[in-house]
Structure formats: structure tokens, C-alpha cells
């Protein structure tokens, strides 16, 4: 198994439903219709436990989906800047997500956080070296 957490531990999938996220032989490169791995929608929807679980695997933290967004960009662009998304941004930064990886329009996570007035997320990104 990729994750040995015991059978009694509740794990959440990217849709937030109770499910096994990583089973034996799970393909962490598998993508959804938008070209995102499980990490991307988990960040979008603010599923902190799912993100935490996925970040214990060798999943590509800087995977870019068909929209040109990484998990970090999704957390900022589609997140609300609240506690859950702040925690996710912290976890992605701790996992060495590229805080300067821009979308297809050249906008960085920092630029998106500023546009959305996500002040706490902006501070997290700046502290991590975002430009």
C-alpha cells in the first residue's frame, strides 16, 4: 500500500466523500477530465485531510492541468482564502510547490491572491518567496 494508515483511519477522496484515496498500486498520475491529479480538485474544494494524505505520497505537487493550473493555483483561484485554503497553501509550500509557477496567462499565485484580496494567502506566498 502507498499509505499504511490502518484500516480504521477515515480517508477522503477529492470529492470529499469517505473513500480510500490511495490503494495498493494506485496511479498517482491518473487525471480527471480537466487533466488534474487528485491533488488539484482536493485543493480547489478545500479538503484539507485529503490534501494532507496525498502529500504523503510521491504525487507531483506542481502538476499542471489542462487549464494551466497547479494545485496551488487552484487553491488560490477557486478557493475562498479562508482557513482551509490557507492550511492547504501552507502544506503545498511545505512540500516545495513552486510559488512562482504562473498560469497560462502569466499570472502567479501571488497575483491571483492579490486580485482576490486573500491577504492571509498573500502573506504566506510572500514569506515563501513568491514574486
TrEMBL record:
Regions that span the bilayer: none
The protein, known as: Ankyrin
PANTHER family on file: ANKYRIN REPEAT DOMAIN-CONTAINING PROTEIN 60, USHER SYNDROME TYPE-1G PROTEIN-LIKE PROTEIN
Pfam families xref list: Ank_2 (PF12796)
Keyword Glycosyltransferase: no
Gene3D superfamilies attached to this UniProt entry: Ankyrin repeat-containing domain
Organism domain of life: Bacteria
Keywords: ANK repeat
Keyword Translocase listed: no
Origin species: Ramlibacter tataouinensis (strain ATCC BAA-407 / DSM 14655 / LMG 21543 / TTB310)
Amino acid at each position: 500500500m502507498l499509505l499504511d494508515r490502518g484500516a480504521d483511519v477515515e480517508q477522503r477522496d477529492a470529492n470529499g466523500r469517505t473513500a480510500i484515496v490511495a490503494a495498493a498500486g494506485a496511479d498517482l498520475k491518473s487525471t480527471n477530465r480537466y487533466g488534474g491529479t487528485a491533488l488539484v480538485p482536493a485543493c480547489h474544494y478545500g479538503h484539507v485531510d485529503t490534501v494532507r494524505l496525498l502529500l504523503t505520497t510521491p504525487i507531483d505537487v506542481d502538476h499542471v492541468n489542462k487549464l494551466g493550473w497547479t494545485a496551488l493555483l487552484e487553491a488560490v483561484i477557486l478557493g475562498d482564502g479562508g482557513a482551509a485554503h490557507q492550511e492547504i497553501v501552507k502544506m503545498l509550500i511545505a512540500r516545495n510547490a513552486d510559488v512562482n509557477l504562473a498560469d497560462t496567462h502569466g499570472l502567479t499565485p501571488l497575483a491571483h491572491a492579490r486580485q482576490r484580496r486573500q491577504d492571509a494567502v498573500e502573506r504566506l506566498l510572500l514569506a515563501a518567496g513568491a514574486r
